[in-house]
Request: fold
Amino acid sequence: MLDLEEVHNLNLEVVEYESHYLALKSFILFSSINDIDVICISKEHIGVSFDYLSKQSFEQEIVFLDDISFEKLYTKTIESLADKRMSDIKQTTEDSKIEEDDIHLSEFLKISSDIMTDEESAPIIKFVNSLFYQAIKKNSSDIHIELHEFKGEVRYRIDGVLIKHIELDKNVMALVVSRIKVISNLDISEKRVPQDGRTTIKISGKTLDIRVSVLPSFYGERVVMRILMQSENIPTLENLGISSDTGRELLELTKNSYGMILVTGPTGSGKSTTLHSLLQTIESTDKNIITVEDPVEYKSDTINQIQVNEKVGLTFASGLRSILRQDPDVIMIGEIRDNETASIAIQAALTGHLVFSTLHTNRAPAAITRLIDMGIERFLITSSILGVMAQRLVRQLCPKCKEKDSLSAHYSNELDIPIDHLIYKSNGCEVCSYTGYQGRRAISELFVITDDVKKELKNKIDDEQLMEIAIKNGMITLSFQLKEMLKNGITSLSEVIRIGIK
Reply:
């Protein structure tokens, strides 16, 4: 039997033998050691492996591996085959004008009846890789896999909206879920409780992190996979669509050595992306930047990142306390959720640290009253907060297929736009995958805490009064920017209604 050290010193290469590259799940592997084809057997499963091999006509030499070595080779086999499938997918796309979806889905459906009892078979691996490939190709942020009573369904979240990708037999989709569990190191046999995991895939030379969430539902398990970007792929403020004036003011605030900058908005409005874009702007070798996030969405080699783990007591508050003992210059808190986290963040901002964080409020001035509601004293807020930016992500109409539209009297009065003003609506074409939209743009309003605002905050004040002060001080509101996008034909009336800023 080869031990772990001997295996590491050998040239192990995975060899594919028609449909026998993987047999009896993880009991037998076909490999090559020093250019000699061999059959590798796990010591733990010698009996069942020999039972299988006795019925076959293989002539390769049999090599026994210890459990650790076999597990490493098994993982390498899966990765090698997945990479091979992905290369095939890429080559097919380059060589043919036929849609990649049609090639692989039709091929998969033809052979789906033969794979119902074997979740490790090549078609399942190929199909799951195809899902990842299509998600990247369509700039999807999330992949949803859902099981219903008689069917399974895959949907992609593209530009913030879920779009149906394909329907498959429920039993086949259950095998897809099992495959995803395998590559995410989750328990395949456990189907009663939620599970969370991560996996990494390589596509066209790029490495992508995938965050996986499995949730039991009435008809089976549903899976949501979030595609996480690497730090080098984080867009700049300009690329996000933030106006040059707002971006310039925001960057001026980051030049302060201490204080807090908040980014607000509903879930999916791009708050984390904006914060990481700011961190990329200010990072340097003479600054110690530490973040505490739930989860870590953008992996970076230059920023120290902490993952919240409430199961072991690592919360935003406890993580933030520990960060303060690590001599940080800049701190980023994924979200302020409670009074404890807010209090520690405010104290950090007051004691010589530049702090970035997010809040769930609809408008920028509302963040001040939210902190007051959390129990933070007004004098602490005025002393620590530098500015608050609220933002939204607005879908842009596809320039190839957008159509002329008209305003009704109701919306003309509500939006204060002349009824005869030309606007556009979505249509759908091949360029935009028949969604009518192509890409998103960030709109934002920046509420800077000036001396005038600090004076007003000494008295009892509400959101509307703060909004009036902000507009008086020159803040360009979200609603104004949204109306301008509609008037300029960049977005549609239905998107303006969907965003719903008042």
User: Anything to note?
Assistant: The radius of gyration is 27 Å. Confidence is low (pLDDT under 50) at residues 8-26, 89-121.
